[in-house]
Structures are given as C-alpha cells and as structure tokens.
Specification:
214 residues, alpha+beta, Pnp Oxidase, Chain A, ten-stranded antiparallel sheet, 34% strand
Amino acid sequence: MTAPSDRTEVRRLPERAVYDRETIHAIVDEALICHVGFLADASPVVIPTIHARIDDTLYFHGSPASRMLRGMKKGTEVSIAITLLDGLVVARTPFHQSLNYRSVIVFGEARLVDDPDEKQLALKAVTDHVTPGRWEDSRRPSEKEIAGTLVLAVPLDEVSAKVRIGPPVDEEDDIELPYWAGVVPLSIVPGAPIPAAEVDWPAPEYLTDYRRPV
C-alpha cells in the first residue's frame, strides 16, 4: 500500500481511490500511452508518449531534439497521467452519464538515464511493453541509435490510482423512466497483422495473438 501525498490523495469521490501497488502496476502495465505534463519556458505542456515500468520506476524515451526530453535532461518536476477506458456508463439523465475507467497519476522528478546498462534495460522494456517478445525478435539498436535516444526515469513513489466500475447511479425517482441505462464495455481489439510490402511470411505468434496484459 502506498500512502498518498498531498498531491496524490484523491479528494473528489475518495471511495474510488486505490493506493495499493498491485493495482497501480497493473494499470501502468496495461496502458500503451501516458501523458507527461511539465513546464517549458513557464508554459504548461502535455505530451503523449510510450512508457514502460521496471519495478517501481517508469521509463519513457525519445529524440534529443524533443522539447520535452531536452527540457528534462537536468531534472524537472513532471506530472504523468495514465488512463484505461473500460466502458460507457449510460445513465437515464446526462447528469449521471459517465465512464468506467482505471487511471493513475504520478508526480516526481524526471531523471536522465545515462548508465548504459540501465538505458539498455529501459529500451528493451519500452519495446516489449508495446509488443512483448519483440526485443528478442528484432535487430538490436546500434550504438548510434542508442546515442541518439534519450531515456528518462520517474520513480513511482508519489502515485495513486482512481477506478470507477459498475452500472450508472441514477436518482431513485428516475429508475422507472422509459430510458435505457447500463454499460457499453470497451476494450482494445487487435486486427490481423498487415505485413510490409517486402514481407511474404506469416507474422509471429506474439502479433497474431496480440493481447494487452489484464
């Protein structure tokens, strides 16, 4: 269990707050994208990026030309949001319309990863986060490619989750109204792999049977 800080404590609908590591890690691992918020030249910026988790550290990477990564090389405070959508919650009145979701908020200082071994592990983790098994089934990045990639790390110390599940919560007086109410489940459904023009052999099993961790 992670004790919430002043910044991560869920104050609105606190019954939806989750602070245990297992739930937080599961949300982080299932999501394909995180949104990183930071200040650049005193202006707020939010950028979506691929991430990966190793133990209690979140990693993301990009080009040295990236404004986000360039501004964080010396360390900067960031706020990271990760969200999974699980369903449309259709209520009898728009006031109670909602979504079923699982979300994580992280606060911390981004750290430039300059240790070669840690950087290699982080790049592998980011690759396999999107397509598990791909790192071993591809050409390794060259020294030039690794040198041209910045990797940043943020500790999962100041973190919390918020989760909504279940049906709509309508007013008691609205229950008998003749309007459909319920939940429309949402999920990522992968299609069949489409090969590049030069590829005339079947896709590997980790792509034909692609699933996100749950």
